[in-house]
Design a protein that fits this description.
The complex is a heterodimer. Chain A is mainly alpha-helical. Helices cover 75% and strands 0% of the residues of chain A. In chain A, α3 packs parallel to α6, α6 packs across α8 and α8 packs antiparallel against α10. The relative contact order of chain A is 0.15. In chain B, β1 and β2 form a beta hairpin. Chain B contains twelve helices and two strands; from the N terminus they run αααββααααααααα. Chain B has a two-stranded antiparallel sheet with strand order 1-2. Classes of the chains: A mainly alpha, B mainly alpha.
C-alpha cells in the first residue's frame, strides 16, 4: 500500500497543483479580455454601428461602417496578393522541389512569419508610400499581404502533405500530367484545409494594426479609392482608445468586440472543419 | 471500318505516344510559376532587408554608430539616438520572459502529461492558442482601461515598500514598463506554451516508461528526465517568444507611456523601438524618416537573429 504522506508523494501533489495553477493564471487574461470586451462593446452593437460614420469629437452616436469597409478592402487586396503566391509557392514546396530547397524556403517562411509586423509596415511604407507620396489603402493591403503570406504557405504546405502519395500516383498512372494532377486531384483534395487556413490568415490580418498606422493611415470618412488613405477597424481602436470622449471609446470597444468575435468564430470553424478530412 | 472503330484500334498505340506539345508547355509553365512564387516567398525576406538598409542609409551616414550611444531623440534639432528605446525593448522583453517562462513551461507540462482527460485537454489547448489570436490592439485597449488601473495600487505598494531599489524608485503614473512587461507576458505565453508542449509530447514514450518503471514518481520523471530531454525545444520556444516580445508593437505602444527619457524604474514610462516607430512614422519627414528606418533596421536585425536561432533550435528538436 502506498503511503500518501511521504515527502515524495507530497512533492507530486505540490508540483501538480503548481503547474495546474500556471494553466489557470495563463487563461485568466483570456477570460478577462473576453469578458471586458463583451461587456463594454455590447451596448453599441446595433444597426448604427454597421451603417454610420464615426462621430466627430465629443458628439454622440455614430458607427464604424467606414472602418469595416476599409478593413474589407485592405484584407481583400492582401488576400488577392498573398493567396496565389502562397498557394502556388506551397505547391512547389510539396510537389516539385528537392528536399534541400524546400527546407530552405520553409525556413525562410518561418523567419518571415517572425518579422515584426511594424517592420513589414516600414517596408510597405518604403516601397509604396515613399514612391507614390501618398498614404493609401493599397500600401496597407500590401503590408497585410506580407503578413498573411507565411500563414498561407504553411497551411497550404501542410494540407498538401496530408494528401496521400497514392492519389498522385493514381493520377499520373492514368496519364495525367503534373499540372493536371496538382490542379484537378491534389489541390481539390486539400482544399477544405487550405480554405480553413486562409480564413484564419484573413482573421489575423483583419486585426493587424501596426503596419496600417502609417501605410493606410485613417480617415473619418468612407474610403475614397485604392490610392487614398483608408480607415480600418484596428486603427480605429488604436485612435479612439486614447481620446477622452466616451462615445468614441465605446466605439473602440465595439470594434474590438467585432475583431474578437471574428477571431473566435474563425478559430472555432477552423477546428470544426479540420476534424473532417477527405482522405 | 467506321472512324470510331479506327480510333479505338489506334488506342493502344496512342497511349505510348509522347504528350502533345501544348500539354508539355502547360506542364513546364505550371512548374515554373510555382517555382518562381516559392522563391519569391524567400525573396521577400531579402527584399525587406535591402529596402530597409537603403532607406536607412542617409541616417547611417549621418550618425553612424553614435546612433546607439546617444540617448536624445529630438526631431526638431535633427538629433537622433536610439539607446533609450533599445534599453526599453530589451528590458520590457526580459520582463515579459521573466513571467512567461515559468508560467508557459508549467502550463505546457500540465497540458502534455495527461493530468486531465483528453477532451478537456483539447479544449484547454485551444483556449491557450486563442490567446495568441486576439489582436494586439485589443490587448492594448484592455491594458489602458483594465490592466493599468489594476496595477496602479500594486505599483504604489512596491514604490512605498521597495522604493529604495532603483527599479521601483519612481512613483507610478499609470503607463510604464511594468504594465508593458505584463502585456508582453500575456502575448508570448501561448507560443512558449505551444512549443514547449510540442517538444514534451514528441519525446519517445520509452523515456517516460523507463523512468516510471524504475520507480520514479511522475514529477521526478518530468523534472529529471523529460525536461532535460526536451530542453532545447523549450529554449527554442522561449527564443521565439523573445522575438515576438521585441517586435510587439500596438499593445506596448498603448501602455508603455512613450517617454524617450531613460529611467531605470520599472514604474516609470519608457519606450521601445517598435513603439517609437508606431508613434512617429506617420508624421515624420526628411532625416527623421531615415532615422526611424535606421531604428527599424536595428529592430529587424535583432529579431532576425533571435528568430533564426530559435528556428534552428526548434528544427533540430523535431528530428529527435
Amino acid at each position: 500500500m502506498r503511503n500518501y504522506k511521504t515527502p515524495r508523494s507530497l512533492f507530486v501533489w505540490v508540483m501538480t497543483l503548481l503547474s495546474g495553477a500556471c494553466l489557470v493564471i495563463t487563461l485568466i487574461p483570456l477570460f478577462a479580455v473576453m469578458i471586458y470586451v463583451t461587456i463594454k462593446g455590447f451596448n453599441r452593437l446595433n444597426l448604427d454601428l454597421f451603417t454610420q460614420l464615426p462621430p466627430s469629437a465629443g458628439m454622440q452616436g455614430g458607427g464604424i461602417a467606414n472602418a469595416i469597409a476599409g478593413t474589407l478592402i485592405m484584407v481583400g487586396i492582401a488576400a488577392a496578393i498573398s493567396v496565389p503566391i502562397g498557394v502556388f509557392g506551397a505547391v512547389y514546396l510539396s510537389e516539385f522541389s528537392s528536399v534541400q530547397v524546400a527546407r530552405w524556403i520553409r525556413f525562410a517562411t518561418n523567419v518571415l512569419s517572425g518579422v515584426p509586423s511594424i517592420i513589414v509596415g516600414i517596408f510597405a511604407y518604403g516601397i509604396i508610400v515613399l514612391t507614390t507620396k501618398q498614404f493609401s489603402a493599397f500600401a496597407g493591403g500590401v503590408a497585410l499581404s506580407v503578413l498573411m503570406l507565411p500563414i498561407v504557405v504553411r497551411t497550404t504546405d501542410e494540407a498538401l502533405q496530408i494528401v496521400p502519395p497514392d492519389v498522385r500516383w493514381a493520377s499520373v498512372g492514368v496519364g495525367a500530367s503534373n499540372y493536371q494532377t496538382v490542379l484537378r486531384v491534389v489541390l481539390p483534395a486539400a482544399l477544405p484545409a487550405i480554405i480553413t487556413g486562409l480564413t484564419l490568415a484573413i482573421a489575423r490580418a483583419a486585426g493587424e494594426t501596426a503596419p496600417l498606422i502609417f501605410t493606410a493611415l485613417f480617415t473619418f470618412f468612407w474610403p475614397q479609392g485604392l490610392f487614398e488613405p483608408a480607415p480600418s477597424l484596428a486603427v480605429l481602436v488604436y485612435n479612439f482608445a486614447s481620446v477622452p470622449y466616451a462615445s468614441q471609446q465605446e466605439l473602440a470597444w465595439a470594434a474590438s468586440l467585432i475583431l474578437v468575435l471574428l477571431v473566435l468564430l474563425t478559430s472555432i470553424l477552423a477546428r470544426w472543419a479540420t476534424r473532417k478530412s477527405i482522405y | 471500318m467506321s472512324k470510331r472503330a479506327e480510333r479505338m484500334d489506334m488506342g493502344e498505340e496512342r497511349a505510348i505516344q509522347p504528350r502533345q506539345q501544348q500539354e508539355r508547355v502547360m506542364d513546364t509553365g505550371f512548374f515554373w510559376v510555382t517555382r518562381i512564387f516559392a522563391f519569391a516567398i524567400a525573396g521577400i525576406l531579402v527584399w525587406i532587408a535591402i529596402q530597409m538598409a537603403r532607406d536607412a542609409m542617409p541616417a547611417v551616414q549621418a550618425f553612424g554608430l553614435n546612433f546607439f550611444a546617444s540617448s536624445s531623440w529630438n526631431p526638431v534639432r535633427d538629433q537622433y539616438g536610439v539607446w533609450p528605446m533599445i534599453y526599453g525593448t530589451l528590458v520590457s522583453s526580459a520582463l515579459g520572459l521573466l513571467f512567461a517562462v515559468p508560467l508557459g513551461v508549467g502550463t505546457a507540462i500540465f497540458l502534455s502529461e495527461n493530468f486531465l482527460p483528453k477532451s478537456v485537454q483539447t479544449v484547454l489547448v485551444f483556449m491557450v492558442e486563442l490567446l495568441a489570436a486576439i489582436p494586439s490592439v485589443v490587448y492594448g485597449l484592455w491594458g489602458i482601461f483594465v490592466l493599468i488601473p489594476f496595477l496602479q495600487p500594486i505599483g504604489i505598494f512596491l514604490h512605498k515598500t521597495l522604493g529604495f531599489l532603483p527599479i521601483f524608485s519612481t512613483s507610478p503614473v499609470g503607463p510604464g514598463m511594468l504594465p508593458a512587461g505584463i502585456i508582453l507576458t500575456i502575448m508570448i505565453l501561448p507560443i512558449i506554451t505551444a512549443i514547449s508542449r510540442d517538444s514534451l509530447a514528441s519525446l519517445p514514450p520509452e523515456l517516460r516508461q523507463a523512468s516510471l518503471g524504475l520507480g520514479a514518481t511522475r514529477w521526478e520523471t518530468i523534472i529529471r528526465i523529460l525536461i532535460p530531454a526536451a530542453f532545447s525545444g523549450i529554449v527554442g520556444g522561449i527564443m521565439l517568444g523573445l522575438g515576438r516580445a521585441m517586435g510587439e508593437t500596438m499593445a506596448v505602444t498603448m501602455i508603455i507611456g512613450n517617454s524617450n527619457d531613460l529611467k531605470f524604474s520599472l514604474l516609470a514610462p519608457a519606450n521601445t523601438i517598435a513603439s517609437l516607430l508606431a508613434n512617429q512614422f506617420a508624421e515624420a519627414s526628411g532625416l527623421q524618416i531615415s532615422a526611424l528606418m535606421y531604428a527599424g533596421l536595428v529592430l529587424f536585425l535583432l529579431t532576425l537573429v533571435v528568430n533564426i536561432c530559435a528556428e534552428l533550435i526548434v528544427r533540430k528538436v523535431k528530428k529527435f
